[in-house]
């Protein structure tokens, strides 16, 4: 099994990881976050339930997408065959 993990596989994995980071970085730059709705049970009295829907936002700074994009580019170039 020693010969199974060759340098080619290592470089290919680095390129795939780099491309994935590039895509995630671009998406993080384009979309600054996302919203989702969460339903909470406020009260339960016998068969009667009172629920409340809350909208929450998950966001990140735009520069975080740029950092991930640059890391993806670096990994892609580092994974090239020499």
Low-confidence stretches: none
Share of β-strand residues: 25-35%
> How many DSSP E strands?
2
Query: Spatial order of the strands in the main sheet?
Result: 1-2
The protein's oligomeric status is single chain
Number of helices: 2
**Class of secondary structure makeup:** alpha+beta
Distance between the termini: 24 Å
The global form is: elongated
SSE run: HEEH
Q: Describe the sheet with the most strands.
A: 2 strands, antiparallel
Radius of gyration: 22 Å
The helix fraction, in percent, is 40-55%
Mean pLDDT: 86
- Kindly give the count of domains: 1
Provide a quick synopsis of the model.
The protein has helices at residues 7-30, 62-78, and strands spanning 33-45, 48-59. By secondary structure, the chain is an alpha+beta fold.
